[in-house]
Amino acid sequence: MCGRFTLFTNLSELAERFGFDPSTVQLRKNFNVAPSQSVLTVVANPSGTALAKPEFMVWGLRPNWSSRQSTRPGIINARAETAAEKPSFRSSFRNKRCLVIADGFYEWLKTDSGKNPMRIQLKNGSPFAFAGLWNNGLDINGRAISTCTILTTASTTFMQPIHHRMPVILKRENEARWIDPKINSPSDIQSLIVQNPDTYLQSWQVSNLVNSPLNNDPKCLEAVI
Predict the structure, then answer these.
(1) Which of 146, 153, 105, 108 is nearest to 129 (CA)?
(2) What contacts 172, CB < 8 A, 6 or more positions away?
(3) Of the listed 81, 85, 98, 107, which one is catalytic?
(4) What are the pLDDT digits (tens) for 60-112?
(5) Which of 2, 98, 148, 220 is flagged as catalytic?
(6) 33, 56, 58, 69: least buried by Cβ within 10 Å?
(7) What is the C-alpha to C-alpha distance for residues 149 and 61, in angstroms, rounded to an integer?
(8) Which one is predicted more confidently, 225 or 89?
(9) Rounded to two decimals, what is the model's pTM?
């Protein structure tokens, strides 16, 4: 699964990497992104221009049939294997896909003494894109909002000792196709869900600071020795 991640890369670097105009974005560094928070995503530009469109969405997808009066949290993860068929996700899987931008994530390793938080990122520390689905709707006050979820899949060999599921980190060459609205065949979409090689990733144990979303500090990244 994916329940926490980070995004603290400079906005100019993100804009160059994902092809959007940074002048439309105000981004606060976040070392402990938690569900229900606003997260930076990238979608296809409806104007048809080459530039992608950055958009902030609430992390926790609300399906079309979900009542806006509900106090239940939205759905933060969707299984990549079944998203094309599940009523909560199948429409978004075909027509509303997004890149959820991150530069690392956390997962909790179960041990005899409890759960130890682990930091996982690309070895070069660069930003990447989770495969996301989104939907639009209304919040409890009737205001228009967009919500999103992150696809997960079976863990690679690297991740298996930490957790049996992991978020789908799209290959860079598949990112533009992932958000391309012209691609709406479930089989074509499914073919884009290909994980990066294990050699791209690294991990280390961090402190229990990340257990609370109130802790948003570079100290969340520090290795426990």
Answers:
(1) 105
(2) 128
(3) 107
(4) 999 877 655 556 789 999 999 999 999 999 999 999 999 999 999 999 999 99
(5) 2
(6) 69
(7) 5
(8) 89
(9) 0.95
3-class DSSP state for residue 133? strand
Please give the radius of gyration of the chain, using alpha carbons only, rounded to the nearest integer.
17
Asked if 130 and 102 touch (Cβ cutoff 8 Å), the reply is yes
- Distance, in Å, from the CA atom of 219 to the CA atom of 13, rounded to the nearest integer, reads 22
Phi, psi of 71, deg, nearest 5: -95, 0
Is 107 among the catalytic positions? yes
Q: Give the span between the Cα atoms of 106 and 129, in whole angstroms.
A: 15
| CATH class for the domain made up of 4-220 | alpha beta
Give the residues across from 77 on adjacent strands: 150
Give, rounded to a whole angstrom, the gap between the first and last alpha carbons of the chain: 26
- Which residue's structure tokens are 């919500």? 147
Nearest to 205 by CA among 189, 193, 185, 221: 221
53 phi, psi to nearest 5 deg: -115, 115
| Beta strand 104-111 pairing with 4-7 | antiparallel
d(CA 130, CA 167): 7
Q: Give 70-89 as a DSSP string.
A: --S--B-EEETTTTTTSTTT
> Catalytic annotation on 81?
no
Q: Tokens standing for 171?
A: 């290959």
Q: Which residues does residue 149 pair with via DSSP β-bridges, in sequence order? A: 133
Nearest alpha-carbon partner for 175 in 196, 201, 149, 146: 196
Residue pLDDT, tens place only, 125-167: 999 999 999 999 877 777 889 999 999 999 999 999 999 999 9
